[in-house]
UniProtKB/TrEMBL annotation:
InterPro entries linked to this entry: Aromatic_deC, PyrdxlP-dep_de-COase, PyrdxlP-dep_Trfase, PyrdxlP-dep_Trfase_major, PyrdxlP-dep_Trfase_small, Pyridoxal-P_BS
Stated family: Belongs to the group II decarboxylase family.
Protein name (Swiss-Prot/TrEMBL): PLP-dependent transferase
Organism: Dissophora globulifera
Record's keyword annotation contains Lyase: yes
A GO term, aspect molecular function: carboxy-lyase activity
Modified residues (N6-(pyridoxal phosphate)lysine): K194
């Protein structure tokens, strides 16, 4: 798992697990596997809530029960943030979304975030900031994660980043600036079965090693007379995550990192992003008559677009939605590419997310281009 910490260029205890001191927050990270990014988000929110109990309220929620005072503040969040709040009993309505993060100019989004956090804090709440890294429709990142980390510090908020695929921007010097400030989070969600391309049932959870003994162990430990995993100075996985029995999920992670390494993942990430940019530029510059891209830019590996409207431009939402859905169904039936439906800024849209390790511009762009031209030209 140290290889995972290294893959994302996060600081890691050079002496390894055993000498880790929990007294001083060195900023070192550790990683573990989960069943997916949903599970990592649930773990992150649970750890965050317990941390807030101990560090903001002076109580242990996992011992004494929860007082309902935590609010989750988020931006452009993935649906699983509400799911995690629901499962954990924080409540879906206690998730506050700051609109438009990453989309405004200047320092507006941080100002809006700070105002919201201050308001909640003044109302006696404890704050769990849950930041999306790489918005699911567009790949957009927060503009200034360092500033957001400062706000968290100022208001004693817990800081989690959901970087399920956005975190992979750290694999390439070309894109790493997008994910700058990642290392300031308390904990991070990453996905194994997305851009790492390992089989399903692999999420990653990265966390400050100082959380392990005082927060994660009390929260997750399950002691039974017949289970005696300890005897080593580091925590047993059973006592710092959801499952007791777990399969050896880190094996494929280890194998692929041994085989490809950081250099291999740099190439995969860059090639996938290059494919997305090729697709984006083609739609925007060559065939705006067929396809309309819905963002100003293509920062990472995702393109969000729609079928170009007819000249009258007066179609209703339902008509547009139907046309896009029909086009998407035809595209996916070809078997050449697989895109998904979405809504972006209130408009029905189609989303292309490129993350397969085998996809290259050289081999795949031409067939995709021909297919997209053919399918959009039918009616
Ligand atoms: C995919 C995704 C998730 C959920 O991941 P699963 O592995 O399907 O559970 C959560 N957050 C983000 C940002 C994602 O992209």
């Amino acid at each position: 798992m140290q290889m995972v910490v290294d893959l994302f260029s996060l600081p890691r205890d050079p002496a390894g697990r055993q000498s880790a001191s929990v007294e001083v927050d060195s900023g070192y990270f550790r990683a573990m596997t989960t069943t997916g990014s949903t599970a990592s988000n649930i773990v992150g929110m649970a750890v965050g809530r317990e941390w807030l109990g101990v560090h903001d309220r002076g109580v242990s929620y996992c011992q004494d029960g929860y007082d309902g005072q935590v609010v989750v503040v988020t931006n452009m969040a993935h649906a699983t943030v509400w799911k995690a709040a629901s499962i954990l009993g924080i409540g879906r309505k206690q998730v506050v979304e700051i609109p438009g993060m990453g989309l405004t100019d200047g320092d507006d989004e941080e100002r809006v975030l700070e105002e919201e956090v201050k308001k909640l804090k003044d109302a006696g709440k404890a704050i769990l900031v849950f930041l999306a890294f790489g918005e699911v429709n567009t790949g957009i990142f927060p503009r200034n994660t360092r500033r957001i980390a400062e706000i968290c510090k100022k208001y004693n908020a817990y800081f989690h980043i959901d970087g399920a695929f956005g975190i992979y921007a750290r694999c390439s010097p070309k894109y790493a600036h997008l994910a700058d400030g990642l290392e300031l989070a308390h904990s991070i969600t990453a996905c194994g079965h997305k851009w790492l391309n390992v089989p399903y049932d692999c999420g990653l959870f990265l966390y400050r090693q100082t959380l392990e003994k005082p927060i994660m162990e009390p929260l997750f430990s399950s002691t039974a007379a017949y289970l005696r995993p300890s005897g080593t100075p580091f925590s047993h996985p059973m006592n710092i995550s959801i499952e007791n029995s777990q399969r050896f999920r880190s094996l494929p992670v280890w194998a692929t990192l041994r085989a490809y390494g950081r250099e291999g993942y740099r190439k995969i990430v860059e090639e996938n992003c290059r494919f997305a940019k090729t697709l984006y530029d083609w739609m925007k510059l060559s065939r705006p008559d067929l396809y309309t891209v819905l963002t100003e830019d293509c920062p990472l590996n995702i393109v969000v677009f729609a079928k170009t409207q007819s000249d009258s431009g007066r179609e209703s939402y339902e008509e547009l939605d139907k046309k896009n859905a029909e086009l998407l169904a035809r595209i996916n039936q070809t078997g050449v590419a697989y895109f998904s439906p979405t809504v972006w800024k209130g408009k029905p849209a189609i989303r292309a997310a490129i993350s397969n390790w085998q996809t290259t511009v050289e081999l795949d762009w031409e067939p995709v281009r021909v297919m997209l031209e053919e399918q959009a030209s039918i009616a």
